[in-house]
Amino acid sequence: MLQLASVTKVYPNGVHALERFSAEIQLGEIIAIIGGSGCGKSTLLRAVAGLDRASAGTVTLDGETITAPHAKVGIIFQEPRLLPWLTVADNIGFGLSELPAAERRERVAKALARVGLADKAKVWPRELSGGQAQRVAIARALVAQPEVLLLDEPFSALDAFTRKDLQDHLLDLWADTRPTLVLVTHDVEEAVVLADRVLVMRPHPGRLFEEITINLSRPRDRNAPLFEQFKRHVLTALDRSLDRTVPDMQGRRDAGGGLWW
Amino acid sequence: MNAIVTPCILARDTVLTMTMTVELQAPAAAATPQTGRAAWLTRLARPLLGLLLPLSLALGWELLVWAGWSNGRLVPPPSKVFTTIAELARSGELTRHIVATLSRVGIGFGFGVAAGTLLGGICGYWGLARRLVDPTIQALRAIPSIAWVPLFILWLGIFETSKVALIAVGVFFPVYLGLTGAILSVDRKIVEVGRIFRLSGPAMIRRILLPAVLPAYVVSLRVGLGLGWMFVVAAEFMGASEGLGYLLIDGQQLGKPAQIVAAIVIFAIIGKATDWLLEIATAPLLRWQDSFARQSGAA
Prior knowledge:
The structure holds two protein chains of two kinds.
Chain A: E1 2-10, E2 16-25, E3 30-35, H1 41-49, E4 56-61, E5 64-65, E6 73-76, H2 88-92, H3 101-114, H4 130-142, E7 148-152, H5 160-177, E8 180-185, H6 188-194, E9 197-202, E10 207-213, H7 225-241, H8 249-255
Parallel strand pairs in A: 3-8, 3-9, 6-7, 7-8
Antiparallel strand pairs in A: 1-2, 1-4, 4-5, 9-10
Chain B: H1 2-23, H2 36-66, H3 78-90, H4 93-125, H5 127-141, H6 149-156, H7 160-184, H8 188-196, H9 201-237, H10 244-253, H11 257-282, H12 292-298
Helix pairs in contact in B: 1-2, 1-11, 1-12, 3-11, 4-5, 4-7, 4-9, 4-10, 6-7, 7-9, 8-9, 9-10, 9-11, 10-11
């Protein structure tokens, strides 16, 4: 279980990026975090990844406090961030250097086939399209068999068709080992397609505004009326989150003595 | 003049050709617009185009002198330059001078690269060292390196040591600057990939920083080598009894312009050849680069 307890981040320039953010995420859950710019979505993800330390509060995974990158936590960024001097296969095997070569090769080959790029093993990253490169990044993260996979707007740089394709593909891959997914996005449809729960955040400072559970079975039909309804629900929450006169969930919870959860 | 331009073009084309053979391993490069004979002819014709201007200039000058419109005493015609080179070669003088100059450049380059790499690496990686050392190095860099000559002669004597030291100083600065700059500009996003996979300090250097700085480092080595060749001339002006720089001075003092031009031509050929060797030696390490040269080489 991934636990975030009052995670707060104040940058040295005095910006309150994140204020007392708490959440509990079960193993295998898919969580989407959505919100306007400056609401601390990425800050939150970087704290969970162990890339940045929180100013206050703790992130724990199965009872273990995360202060630095953790073997069980993987991350996929907005850009593929492939190492240009390694072939596609070597990029995927980058985190497996401690395994014996034969086992590494086998796992890399399997991961490549799983993302449908078996024929690209010996290709340089520069020869890949944006969607292919992001698939390699997904394979690189998944081949390490993480318990928690963080995704920071992973598909936002791709065209609409590729994005939809990769969203479906991600769900497909998730079904193999069912890791916890925490996805930061600014795309409402993406959140509703993928997530069990959508956490809506509000900016200045970044706080939790509302939590919406998506009770839809998978695979989800993007054109179903119920799907539309959830989308509208999230959109309305997003709109209200930018309205400063509406109290947020955290405020309400604070008023209620922390009994919200 | 002709021979100065010639090797330069030849060398570049050889590199492009080599690049293409490397590229052929990738499936994407297999589809070139021209195939077979036509492509081969174009590849051959391109350097010949560059030879046109220098060759016709040389030929023109040769004809002018031959027709008696100029006596060619101060600007010797190409034929005379080649005769001079041939004579020097036959007497074994040429080899002696080339070996002397090459070994000076080689040793000076080696020391310069070693010092530049060591200090550049430390100052690039370690902020405290950079703040301590870099301002001094930058101040030293502002001194025209030739200004060290008198001091080096006093300190190290008139023979080899002072010459090698001067060359090493010339090579040091571009290598140092290139390496610190390259380390400082390594993409933070790529470094984060290393952090996510929990690389230790040495592993981070070996698996992320080194490959990331390599392209800029190779460029700085080539700039350094170019400066090494510049400084060997200055070094050999200060009292050498052999070397290509000595041939220049000797030609001036005895009024032999053909010998001066011959030495210049040989400088150009060897300088370009060493640069080309360096480029070939490092090319396998940089195969992954998506460079302009590569694209135009394949087109």
